[in-house]
Write a structure and sequence with these properties.
single chain
């Protein structure tokens, strides 16, 4: 079920790059994961504004559902599933990637800021 993701190169001014590095570190993400998330969110926002839909794969086959169940079981067990894997599953399930990332962080006892839940 895990599909290939496209690779993209970009050039950024130093201050923007440095800001993104700090942001990624604050969220315990790789810089690549953060930038991918931001680009995807921006594309989805633009498409919503235009009344378009993002062509992403749906979870339809039973083997895909089994893999989704396996991912959710890993999250429930507190496993630190990489953002890249969560992004792929989010695409395939048509859910916001941040939803799965927040779920993972809550299950491991932290909110999105790395603080204990409720703090």
């Amino acid at each position: 079920m895990v599909t290939e993701m496209k690779r993209l190169s970009a050039y950024l001014p130093d201050p923007v790059f440095e800001y993104l590095e700090v942001w990624a570190t604050d969220e315990n993400r790789s810089l690549s994961s953060l930038v991918g998330f931001l680009l995807e969110r921006s594309a989805r926002d633009r498409q919503k504004e235009r009344g378009e839909t993002m062509p992403v794969g749906k979870v339809e086959a039973s083997s895909d559902r089994a893999e989704l169940n396996e991912l959710l079981s890993r999250l429930a067990a507190g496993e630190q599933v990489p953002d890249s894997e969560l992004l792929i599953f989010a695409h395939q399930c048509s859910v916001e990637p941040e939803t799965l990332i927040q779920l993972r962080n809550r299950v491991k006892g932290k909110n999105g800021n790395g603080n204990p839940v409720g703090a």
